[in-house]
Amino acid sequence: MPDTVMMSRGKGKEGMRRRLPPMLYGMERRTQSGLEPYIPSPQQPWNRRRVSHLLRRAGFLPTWTELKSAESMQPGALVDLLLQPVGDPAPPASWVGALQPEPTTAEERNAYRAQNAAWLDALRAWWTERMVDSGMNIAEKMTLFWHRHITTEAGIVLIPQYMFQQNALFRSYALGNFRDLIKDVNRDPAMLRYLDGAISVAGNPNENYARELMELYTMGEGNYTEQDIKEAARCLTGWQLDEFTSFDATFSPLYHDTGNKTFMGRTILGRSSLDGRFEGDEVVDIIFEDASVAKFISRALYTFFVYDNQEAVDGVVVEDMAQLLRDNDYDIRPVVDALLKSAHFFDAVNIGAMIKSPAVFSAGLARQLAANPGGARLVADMKTLEEHLLYPPTVAGWDGYRTWISTTTYPWRKSFAERFVTGQLPGGTGQTPVDIIAWGKSFDNASDANQLLDDMLMLLLPVEVSASRRDSYLQTMLGGAPVYEWNIDAPNADTNLRNLLTRLVAAPDFQLH
Amino acid sequence: MKRRDFLSRAIAASAGVASVPLVFRGIPVHAGSYGAVGSGQLSENDNVLVVVQLFGGNDGLNTFVPYTDQKYYQNRPTVGIPPGQVLKIANPTMGFHPEMSGMQNLFASGKLVAVQGVGYENSNRSHFRSENIWLTGSGAGSVLDTGWLGRYIEFTNPAYPLQLPPDPFAVQIGGTLSLMLQAEKGNMGITLADPDTFFRLGRNQLDETVPGGTPYGEEYLFIRAIKEQSDKYSQRINDAFQGGTNIGSYSSTSLSQQLRLVARLISGGLQSKVYMVYLGGFDTHSNQASAHAHLLKTLSDAAEEFTEDLKNQGIGKRVVGLTMSEFGRRTRENGSSGTDHGTASVQFLFGESVNSGVLGQDPDFEVTDSSGDLLHDFDYRQIYSELLEHWFELPPDDVTQLLGGRFTPLPLVRTATGTRPPSTPGDFSLGQNYPNPVAPSAATAIPFSLASRAEVEIVLYDVQGSVIASVASGSFDAGRHQARFSAFGLPPGVYFYQLRVGGRKVSRKMVVR
Fold first, then answer.
1. What is the dotted CATH code of the domain comprising B3-403?
2. What Rg value do the Cα atoms of chain B yield, rounded?
3. Contact flag A13-B291 (C-beta cutoff 8 Å)
4. Which of A223, A297, A362, A490 shows the greatest Cβ crowding within 10 Å of its Cβ?
5. Closest to A21 (Cβ–Cβ): which among B53, B222, B279?
6. Which of A287-296, B30-39, B221-230, B487-496 shows the lowest per-residue confidence on average (mean pLDDT)?
7. A414 with B201: Cβ contact below 8 A
8. What confidence tens digit (pLDDT) does each residue in A279-327 have?
9. Strands B170-173 and B190-192, how do they pair?
């Protein structure tokens, strides 16, 4: 684990941080639904609410147009569409592959550092724009998943090209093979820099990466010994970095520990020459023979897509996901496919129960309100909301779930959302807000106040609101006029709609999806 | 005498709470018993605890340095602190890291106690698992999902969350709310980045409630509660901030600025019992010398500045600071001029009310664990126990209940110095109800006793803080009493009953099956 900046906090690794939330005494603790396919029924109809549920969870919140286009599809076909492979996006700029001359003077070093910092900013803004542009596809959501799961801090790595490569690695593995991904992470330059792999050498192995490989990325704490960490660290010695020569890691037999190792009860024969680089793969292969791995990553996927408080609602799904993962040799795609098509996923108990992460919240605002203030601004918002992309608070990443909402972040969420609606931020800089009349007209029937309100509620809130709350929203929308006088082209409609939207984005369930 | 024997005897000696002064390794132990404030009573003094979390695993051996022990230098040929550079104190064998003149000054003026060898059985070397252990107060073999101070606050405030107290129970400066401040009922503290922003953004309209019992409902109510707290406390924090002051200078580091804010809020009359601040970066696996020196200077200067400020304002006697870090580092340095994850370590308490000195044995490099690392002499919960029992003046039985076992308090703070509420109608105590848990429709007895005749009321609350019933009410003679109560019709769950005598109160938990 590397140094962390101040004002950030670490609490739990994947397995530890999901603590049972408070106030669940009266809650029905389990559902009967499992991983079997969801079949629409009168009790659990395939309606706009469920279409929205799927789009919200698989992406960064749908637009009205997307929601409309999706509802003509059957659930299985819609999931197939969401999971379709997409090509790589165009990179931020040519710097991603451009080797830099090694700075030699203090002046050059300062310029180099400043340039790198600016490129890292550009990378984060670029990535955030990819989220806004993600459309109806899961790739960007999965890229975020891997960044959250296999954390790396740009503040330690410092080389923007390394961070871009890692981001591209995660995107290329979006639904790929988990074991292969981990093997690539073993020699990922950003990771080698971040957790000291590039300075871990024969005779003086550094345990930093070996520990987190097992604790945070694959097995979870308690499934290996301290000695296993030491032995794995020995296997992984020999990787070197020189960012002025190449953006790839190189393997140097000279620095590799060629002795035999005993890892998790198995012997890994020490190898000299370039073959030493395969010892890290052997470590991964042995790790992936442990039953803990499938369960560990299945649980992470579950809490990313279904509900953070998994124990409260799931008795069997994670176990079944783990089995499916093992049956498919650790390919992620079949598991996510089955999960998003499952009866459990569409169970009413799981609808609207997830707290939006800052990424979903911020990119979702830009998407749903058709008012994108730009990637850099969204990155800054997300940082204030305590999800600073590429800067996880600790090596365990973000705690998520209820820690996203606090007396510090909640008022900010409200203010940022208001800024999308009104253009104003109290005491801060504004943005071009939603063109609310055009936005209103993008719904099916803007001339019918009741239908317009219901469509907006459908788009922005995860669950139907009570009749009294709906009525209160309607009064705000009408500004005191009778409903039959509603006219979106009337002079006061702009103000009334913004007042309504201001209330909607401040509601507790606007934070849910 | 063997070292272990000596220690257990020494601890046994300190455990006796007697009316004559005891001396433990030169430090006077509590001179009076807590009987003076009424056994069984929650004394609502205005003492404050400030927890300083040092995340990453602080290297205790280079913080409080055993510079007279050659084995220290044999284990640490490059990272060891040379004897000539160690800051000397009135102790023949131990001294401070050269950057820690602040704590050296505090020690010299009787405002700091160093507790050596703090840890727990089967020390865990995962940051996150070990941090969870420290934050929750669990042992290595059990996982808790509530914080030790969260439980304390919940226990003493049964009316939460229906009644929010005028001031937040606990304030954490920055970050997502620590597990330390969470309880079954939810967040027992607020997070605060800066009072101005909090005030500016904090005003909220309250939303309607929705039924709990579903994941959506529970998360909605959680967010709504945060909203309510943001609203309520933004004004209060602002008032305290505007009314408070700092007398003395602070460094520009984040930690100093966090503590400066805490001092100002205390000065301004905020009645929060607990504050939490944070400094990360202690995970010094490589090239630790300069990074660690910087961190220790940051910590040490901040502790001194904070203590001086409070002293200058005449409020320092009711504030104690405690450092905590998830583990120490290995006795033997690694090959990267750093240190890997270790075990027991030194922790500090600072303030005008600590029993200044050095507690515990110097690090023992010969009697070690199987990895060659330090054994612990004190369980970290002995510090918690001390603070709950003698700083917050909880009855010993309640401390045992909150910590899940009896941990002999270490003599770290002087008998409580906070002001006490007026009116003392005499000692009283409240026992655990029997049977507990109570079967539905069964009766249970709540024992209590009075030293003199008094007006008494016993009230039952549910977890939401609603008053469920008045169990007893009226004038009772001196002596032992039992209030009988039928759980008929009560839904299963956790309840709290509170005994009120003359404006003072004490609570316990009851479970209905």
1. 3.40.720
2. 24
3. no
4. A362
5. B222
6. B30-39
7. yes
8. 999 999 999 999 999 999 999 999 999 999 888 888 789 999 999 999 9
9. parallel
- Residue ranges of B 336-395 with Cβ closer than 8 A to chain A: 336, 340-341, 371
* Region for A423 from its dihedrals, namely left if φ exceeds 0, alpha if ψ lies in -120 to 50, beta otherwise: left
B104 phi, psi to nearest 5 deg? -60, -45
| Residue A22 near residue B186, CB atoms below 8 Å | yes
To test the contact with chain A by mutation, choose from B124, B178, B285 the residue with the greatest count of A C-beta atoms within 10 A, namely B285
- Chain B segment 116-155 residues within 8 A of A by beta carbon are 124-129, 131-132, 135, 143, 145-146
Find which of A16, A18, A23, A219 to mutate to test the B interface (most B CBs within 10 Å of its CB): A23
CB-nearest to A11 from B128, B202, B219 is B128
- For chain A, say whether B218 makes contact (Cβ under 8 Å): yes
Task: State mean pLDDT over A91-114.
Answer: 96
Mean pLDDT computed over B65-86? 96
Domain extents for chain B? 3-403, 428-512
Question: Cis link prior to B492 (omega < 30° from 0)?
Answer: no
Which is nearest to B324 in space by CA: B183, B169, B120?
Answer: B120
Task: Compute the distance between CA of residue B232 and CA of residue B214 in angstroms, rounded to an integer.
Answer: 27
Interval A371-386: pLDDT, tens: 999 999 999 999 999 9
State the CATH architecture for B428-512: Sandwich (2.60)
CA distances from A165 to A179, A187, B20 (A): 19, 12, 69
pTM for this prediction:
0.78
Beta-carbon contacts of residue B62 (< 8 Å; ≥ 6 apart): B76, B79, B80, B81, B97, B288, B292, B296, B339
Cβ contact B198–A411 (<8 Å):
yes
Instruction: Report CB contact under 8 Å: B334, A206.
Output: yes
Phi then psi dihedrals of residue B269, to 5 deg = 95, 10
Lookup result for tokens 């050269």: B98
Cβ-based contacts of B154 with chain A (< 8 Å): none
Residue B10 CB-density burial (10 A; 0-12 exposed, 13-18 middle, 19+ buried): middle
Q: How many residues does chain B have?
A: 513
Q: State the pLDDT at residue B203.
A: 66
Q: How many CA atoms lie within 13 A of A189 on its CB side?
A: 23
Interface test with B, best of A9, A204, A296, A463 (most B CBs within 10 A): A9
Would you call A10 exposed, middle or buried from its count of C-beta atoms within 10 A (0-12, 13-18, 19+)? buried
Please, what is the average pLDDT of chain B?
Answer: 84
